[in-house]
Amino acid sequence: MTTTTARSSGSTGKDLVSEVAFLARELKTPVINETFAVLGDQARSEGWSHEEYLAAVLGRQVASRTANGTRMRIAAAHFPAVKTTEDFSFDHIPATTRDVIAHLATTTFIAKRENVVLLGPPGTGKTHLAIALAIKAAEASYPVAFDPATRWIERLAGAHSRGLLVQELRKLNRYRLLIIDEVGYLPFDTAAASLFFQLIASRYETGSVVVTSNLAFSRWGETLGDDVVAAATIDRLVHHAQVIALDGESYRTRNHRTGPPPVAAARTKTCELHGLVAVFC
Q1: Both 47 and 151 in a single domain?
Q2: What Cα–Cα distance (Å) separates residue 160 from each residue in 32, 202, 281?
Q3: Contacts of 72 (CB under 8 A, 6+ apart)
Q4: CA 121, CA 184: separation in Å to the nearest integer?
Q5: How confident is the model over 110-120, as a mean pLDDT?
Q6: Residues 6 or more apart from 62 whose CB is under 8 A from it?
Q7: What gap in Å lies between CA 224 and CA 231, rounded to an integer?
Q8: Is residue 94 situated within a structural domain?
Q9: Of 21, 44, 71, which closes a domain?
Q10: How many domains does the chain have?
């Protein structure tokens, strides 16, 4: 015979608090454990419905879990510093380009498996914007990873030497967004250029990349050591890509300059066509 024991109507408030705390621990929901009593008092004083109280308690737990997840994704990305769009100076950026960057910050390009390429001389904010977009991606629950181009090549070269290149590229595809910083600052040898091409090719229409470079596309042959490899790499990179060319004085020297700022510009272009692109796309 099965016996069902009903909760006694005479259960004390202390008993209920202890039971809810126990259940919260069992569910591994520490924020519920921390907030249910305070929210309960507020609910009684303000006349909340049961549903309103439940939504408030669960909302606190979900918000905390989301924030913790964001912090973990940002830490796992290994950014050299945390940069945001909010602390980026748009003074030297035309309004049309600001609108493009604002749209990119919504991270819809990641869902579409599109790319972003930031071109311009040193100090124009390319790395800042790349990290800022990656932070937005982390906040949107996308796994992201950051490294300079040379470090990505070192990682792939190590995997290649162990006969695990295919597995490493497949592992990287778990990240919805890769930041490849500083393409063009140091030249690649033939092996490195081949690995870079394979990295870009492995992401083609499967995952997004944000690439920063101090060189126009017309000079990528200098970095990759081969115009054919450069053309093939650019072809896959810019198909379904937003290319932003940042011009102007380095912000590192701008803060030390006296007198009126020089006129600066930024150009954007959406690339949707195959083939070798010209200077900016």
Answers
A1: no
A2: 48, 15, 31
A3: none
A4: 11
A5: 97
A6: none
A7: 10
A8: yes
A9: 71
A10: 2
Contact assessment for residue 99 and residue 227, using Cβ atoms and an 8 Å cutoff: no
What are the tens digits of pLDDT across the range 191-212? 999 999 999 999 999 999 999 9
Q: Which amino acid is at 143?
A: P
Res 9: pLDDT: 46
Bridge-based pairing of strands 208-213 and 115-119 is parallel
Residues 211, 139, single domain; the answer is yes
pLDDT digits (tens, 9 = 90+) for 59-80: 998 888 888 889 999 999 999 9
279 occurs within a structural domain: no
Residues 223 and 133 both lie in one domain: yes
The pair of structure tokens assigned to 128 is 């800042």
Contact (Cβ atoms closer than 8 angstroms) between residue 182 and residue 80 = no
- Other Cβ atoms within 10 Å of 190 Cβ, number: 11
Domain boundary among 55, 71, 87: 71
- Asked whether residue 105 is assigned to any structural domain, the reply reads yes
Does residue 2 belong to any structural domain of this protein?
Answer: no
Distance CA 173, CA 198 (A): 12
CA–CA gap between residue 148 and residue 184 (Å, rounded): 10
- Where in the sequence is the domain holding 237, given as residue range(s)? 78-271
- How far are the Cα atoms of 143, 169, 206, 207, 239 from residue 174, in angstroms, in the given order? 8, 9, 10, 9, 21
CA distances from 61 to 22, 231, 257 (A): 16, 50, 49
Q: Report the distance separating Cα 197 and Cα 195, nearest Å.
A: 5
